[in-house]
Amino acid sequence: MSRDVRNPLLFECAWEVANKVGGIYTVIKTKVPVTVSEYGDRYCLIGPLSYKTAPMEVEAEEPTDEHLAATLDNMRAQGVKALYGRWLIEGAPHVLLFDTGSMYSKLDEWKGDLWNLAGIPSPPNDHETNETIVFGYLVAWFLGDYVARQLTTAVVAHFHEWQAGLAIPLCRKRHIDVTTVFTTHATLLGRYLCAGSVDFYNNLQYFDVDHEAGKRGIYHRYCIERSATHCADVFTTVSHITAYEAEHLLKRKPDGVVPNGLNVVKFQAMHEFQNRHATSKAKIDEFVRGHFYGHYDFDLDNTLYMFTAGRYEYRNKGVDMFIEALARLNYRLQKAQSTVTVVAFIIMPAATHSYTIEALKGQAVTKQLRDTVTEIQNRIGARLFESAARFHGDSSSSSGALPNADKLLSDEDLVLLKRRIFALKRNSLPPITTHNMADDAGDPILNQIRRVRLFNDASDRTTRNSCAAHISACSPATTSRGGYTPAECTVMGIPSITTNLSGFGCFMADLIERPQDEGCYIVDRRAQSVEDAVEQLADYMHTFSTKSRRQRINQRNRVERLSPLLDWKNLGIEYSKSRQLALRRAYPDAFQANGDEEEGLEEDGYFGSGERQGWMAPSVPASPRFRGSATPGDMGTLTEEMQSLETSDYRGYNQWPGASEEEDSYPFPLVMKVRSRAGSVMSGASTPGGGTFRSLSERDLEKADAALSQRGRRCKRTKDGVREEQREVVERRGPTDICRHAKNYLGSRTFFAMLLGRHRRRISAFQFNG
């Protein structure tokens, strides 16, 4: 019996379903609304049961699908413990969680079966691998039993990462009629190689992957990941850098890229996120007062906050670069005698014992001072009100006169205030960490801070605060394949620094002509040395720290308007493509019967098929121009809609910066890159003062005149002295209304400078030949 491929069932399996560990939890959780809108009740998530988080995240209920209910009853009868219900997040999807501990009695049996089926070894003392094996066999058991009962509808199973992917080779070996998709967010071996201080990406094709995995004691995990990769109907990654990595380490070229997105909720007005920014900064100011005040004073209005956050992976997350760049930034600010103070946060989970006494004491005495000031403020207000109420206009009367300002603060209040101020003073330096580290002497972050001597001295312009548990983000990661920290900052209008080795950095570099102009700074970690990369990072940080408040506000506006690029409403289509491609590969006859082959929906190049629709950011006054599309997984061609854009469509057309205007104080163009039909990259529109086109020098203008003069020798002059050939060139390249408006200036280089500066795309074929 053929299955219905038009309305398939979708089971999405991941280790972090209702179980927050890392970034995959964010991927799954934020993607749920768009997936539920596509599949409805045909969508169910599968994950391991965590008794710590499940009671708070899942509402238990009985399944309405009779086949699913029968399958679970059968498994429970054999000792399997499972929880079925609704995940209490936006979209409220169905979720099925298996208790791996309930079937540990079969672990040895399943390990032997895994060796016999796939030749995958499994050491006895690797708890994570044991959990993976039990979970994988439970998922394969469930899928096999379910599709044996449900025979009418196609079933798609989408697996994330190797911990959930073991069920894929099991389904293939058992010939279970289920379509599989495997998505890797970062290869397992790649994480270890990046952490090992090797020149990873430039030597990727030369690694002996089996030897490297065995040397690091992860060969069995690598085998699970590689078997899932090769047995899946469709294999995808979350970024192009991961695709390049997977092709060499896992020996299969990915079928497409499914970039990470966010469930973006646009602010109702432009000032709304600025107000939220101010509110959040006020909370951080409160913490900084307690942590640093009493040691020395600095102006919080002239203080910048930078942070890096993520799992504790010292090298992979670029913490080594971040600290080194902070030391160089500190030196530059000291040398320039800058009054700016930079407070840097390193937010990573680590083994700790408790809060540091100094950190708690600082917050306590600061709160005590605030409470005392509030109490004195209330008493002064009461005295002032009483005097004002009794005042009758006769200043000679002591009973009805306005109080003297010197008498508003009583002696008792003054003594109490002095006691609180003196209690706040401390002689030691501010603590580096908020917690007592379990291994202070061996902690790599603390050791590097000691090496570069960033001890929060009064002369330092950069101070550190490591939180074991916001405002510019800095994530110079080596192996952040998807990367959510800079993406979340972008949605909130916070500038960020990333690298071209991260998925987010590659994503933005592929879409935007000059990402740094939009508040997304990308450090080159592929084509230059580590020293040069650190210097570039320090340059970006120094550039940001020297901006005025108005420039930073304008930059936040430009960053926030990039958020639609990261919306699942735009990026979710790539997941739909991967599932559709898997169905076509599993059931080709069903699609041929419906005549889809005649519609040009062939499998080859499926992720790259179709023309793109132009995306326009809803934020005012943005008018973005594509480099490719809103999704890097589909490198489409230049669409007809984009070819028909007129010059007046370009933002900034009537906006030239005045000489007295501050940098970045005028609306800035979002310049996006466009791919021609031949695959070449063409720059988008730009406006003078910002964008991709530099200002024309006298030498450029001389070349333009020389080129035009060479052409003009063959042309006769009209009575107004305008060359017909030049008129023909301009009318062919630029819009006719502009040409008519400038008909008296066609022979002047001033007009051509304006035309080149504003409408570069219209005359992209024009070449200087002088």
Query: How many H/I helical runs?
Result: 28
Widest sheet: strand order?
3-4-5-2-1-6-7-8-9
Number of strand segments:
19
Q: Could you name the CATH homologous superfamily of the largest domain?
A: Glycogen Phosphorylase B
Given this structure, which CATH class of the largest domain is correct? Alpha Beta
Tell me roughly what share of residues is in helical segments.
40-55%
**Number of separate domains:** 5
CATH architecture annotation name of the largest domain: 3-Layer(aba) Sandwich
Q: What general form does the structure show?
A: globular
Distance between the termini: 72 Å
**CATH fold label of the largest domain:** Rossmann fold
Q: List low-pLDDT spans.
A: 597-602, 609-668, 675-696, 714-770
Rg over C-alpha atoms, rounded to the nearest angstrom: 32 Å
Strand content: 5-15%
Oligomer: single chain
Reported for the largest beta sheet, the result is: 9 strands, mixed
Mean pLDDT: 78
Structural class: alpha/beta
Write the layout of secondary structure elements.
Layout lengths: L3 E10 L9 H17 L3 E6 L5 H4 E3 L5 H12 L4 E6 L6 E5 L8 H12 L8 H23 L3 E8 H5 L1 H7 L5 E6 L3 H8 L13 H7 L3 H13 L2 E4 L2 H10 L6 E2 L12 H23 L10 E7 L9 H17 L5 E7 L4 E4 L1 H34 L14 H4 L2 H14 L10 E3 L6 H9 L9 E6 L4 E3 L10 H7 L4 E4 L3 H9 L8 E4 L6 H16 L3 H12 L7 H19 L1 H6 L46 H4 L30 E2 L5 E2 L15 H15 L11 H10 L2 H6 L7 H10 L12
Parallel strand pairs: 1-2, 1-6, 2-5, 6-7, 7-8, 8-9, 10-11, 10-15, 11-14, 15-16, 16-17
Antiparallel strand pairs: 3-4, 4-5, 12-13, 18-19
Helix pairs in contact: 3-5, 5-7, 7-10, 12-14, 13-17, 13-20, 14-16
